[in-house]
Amino acid sequence: QAQVVESGGGSVQPGGSLRVSCAAAGFTLDDYAIAWFRQTPGKEREGVSCITIYDETTNYGDSVRGRFTISGDNDRRTVHLQMNGLKPEDTAVYYCAVKPYARCSWDVREFLVWGQGIQVTVSS
Predict the structure, then answer these.
(1) Is the pLDDT of residue 54 over 90?
(2) How many angstroms separate the Cα of 14 from the Cα of each of 17, 74, 81, 88, 123?
């Protein structure tokens, strides 16, 4: 069964940096789109960033563009999200998700494999 596992995250002060990673178990990510979503209580899941590894195309949500960077590892199984200039409003549970066909989307219904989520907290 295809799985992805998030790691990293944690707590940081405003203006700080964190990196979260998403590792695929049992498959490579070449033929898929991999996205990071985030969610806070009472709100819908928000698309943060997406990448298609085969051509390194990246997409970012308006609220994180210029501060976050998504990248794929050479092992073709891991995706990283480097988060710089963090703000309190970035506080959320971050989810990694995988979508068939290597084309990015913000529609959560298109993503078939989800990680368990990882907490990112930005607070002074």
Answers:
(1) no
(2) 9, 31, 17, 6, 6
